[in-house]
TrEMBL record:
Protein name (record): Transporter
Subcellular location: Cell membrane
Organism: Brevibacterium linens
Domain called Major facilitator superfamily (MFS) profile: residue spans: 1-401
Membrane-spanning residues: 41-62, 82-103, 157-184, 222-247, 259-277, 284-305, 311-330, 350-369, 375-396
UniProt GO molecular function: transmembrane transporter activity
Keyword vocabulary terms for this entry: Cell membrane, Membrane, Transmembrane, Transmembrane helix
Coiled coil: none
InterPro entries hit by this protein: MFS, MFS_dom, MFS_trans_sf
Superkingdom as given in the UniProt entry: Bacteria
Membrane-topology descriptor: Multi-pass membrane protein
PROSITE patterns per the UniProt record, alphabetical: MFS (PS50850)
Cited Gene3D superfamilies: MFS general substrate transporter like domains
Gene Ontology, cellular component aspect: plasma membrane
Length: 404
């Protein structure tokens, strides 16, 4: 296998889906704000999204290991498309409400989790394992362009035309992603394995199967260690980003427009990271690429804590996002290489739960520490990433000991 037609189909479907995600990122909160001026209800949309993704992660992991992943990607995207087209129709006809908006967001969160997990799990069957870093890097680059550069401005432009316009666009893009995914290659061997498993074991408990994934993760030193580092890194991320807008206003003297520019510039670091990760890994190996990237995260957060210059802060944030992308690509590729195919969905789901819990804890701690000084959570994040880097150097093995 190489990064050939099958990967090209997955990449294309992901690109369409990512563009819809970018539209949703800006459009859904704006729609909520157009229906109510209660900040709790507007913010509640993001809270609902996070809670749904947390609670569905484990059962979706089981589903990804039970069912043909190709069909999951197809159906998750088609169903998202149909749900959003129906929501857009209610907006167009003036029949929508906050309840429908919230229900639509819950559907999007559930099906997004399904499509994302299935895409990560199917990738090792589409490319050579030695090219997983490159494939994951291409997917990450496309996601950054769609989510950060293309989706938000397009969403703002469309919603200025009509409230339903970006929602129609989202629905169309997700439906198109599902149709493109129809061209993913069918793997008869996996069909046979799923059929044999169902025949031998009969109906099985979702709970027990989810526990199998958790147990595998807990007993694998490298993959389990990476999951814990990921959870800790998520804490560090949200320590800063939960209060970043306040830090930008008070410490850097930025306004709403310049803050948006700061974030856009920082995303360029992630784009660079997605392009160089494979070369870095080939030169340094997983151990030092991961440890070095996490150390870069620590240095960038430490520098940001001391910075009052918006240009320097932008460069430091770009370095931070670069580290985050390199870390994410390497940890994902290692998981894809080391986890048995039959467990990829469940181990991925358990890893996602740890990451989401880390985000929630980091957000809480960022707000709590920020009441004393906005520098405190940023400086604390730097310390967290130092710990992550040390753990990575201790846990990640030399390249020669990592078996495919």
């Amino acid at each position: 296998m190489t990064t050939g037609r099958g990967f090209g189909v997955l990449w294309s479907a992901n690109a369409l889906s990512n563009l819809a995600d970018g539209l949703a990122f800006i459009s859904m909160p704006l729609l909520a704000a157009s229906m109510t001026d209660d900040p709790r209800i507007v913010a509640g949309l993001a809270t609902l999204y996070a809670i749904v993704r947390l609670f569905v992660a484990l059962p979706i992991g089981v589903l990804v290991d039970r069912i043909d992943r190709r069909l999951l990607i197809i159906n998750a995207n088609l169903l998202r498309g149909l749900a959003l087209l129906a929501f857009a129709l209610t907006l167009h006809l003036g029949l929508s409400s906050l309840v429908i908006l919230y229900l639509s967001m819950a559907v999007v969160a559930t099906l997004e989790s399904t499509a994302d997990n299935a895409a990560v799990a199917i990738l090792p069957s589409l490319v050579d394992r030695g090219r997983l870093d490159s494939a994951n890097g291409r997917i990450a680059a496309t996601q950054l362009v769609a989510d950060e550069f293309a989706g938000p401005p397009l969403g703002g432009f469309l919603i200025a035309i009509a409230a339903a316009a970006p929602v129609f666009a989202m629905g169309g893009l997700w439906a198109a992603a599902g149709l493109v995914a129809l061209a993913l290659p069918v793997h008869p061997r996996r069909h046979n394995q799923l059929g044999v498993a169902a025949t031998l074991h009969g109906p099985r408990s979702v709970y027990k199967e989810a526990l199998e994934g958790i147990a595998w993760l807990a007993h694998h030193r490298l993959v389990g260690g990476l999951a814990l580092i990921g959870a800790l890194a998520s804490v560090g991320y949200m320590l800063t980003f939960s209060i970043l807008v306040l830090f930008a206003w008070e410490k850097l003297g930025l306004n709403e427009t310049s803050y948006g520019l700061l974030l856009a510039c920082s995303a360029l670091g992630g784009l660079l990271g997605s392009l160089i990760t494979s070369k870095l890994r080939n030169k340094l190996g997983y151990r030092w690429t991961i440890a070095g990237s996490l150390l870069l995260g620590a240095l960038s957060m430490g520098g940001l804590a001391m910075s009052t210059n918006p240009i320097i802060a932008g460069a430091l944030l770009a370095a931070y996002i670069l580290h985050a992308v390199v870390w994410n690509i390497c940890s994902t590729s290692l998981r894809q290489r080391l986890v048995p195919d039959a467990m990829l969905g469940r181990v991925g789901g358990a890893t996602r739960v740890l990451g989401l819990l880390g985000l929630a804890l980091g957000s809480f701690l960022g707000g709590f520490l920020g009441t004393t000084s906005l520098v405190t959570p940023v400086a604390t994040a730097a310390g967290v990433f130092v710990v992550c880097s040390i753990l990575a150097a201790l846990i990640v093995q030399d390249e020669s000991t990592i078996s495919d």
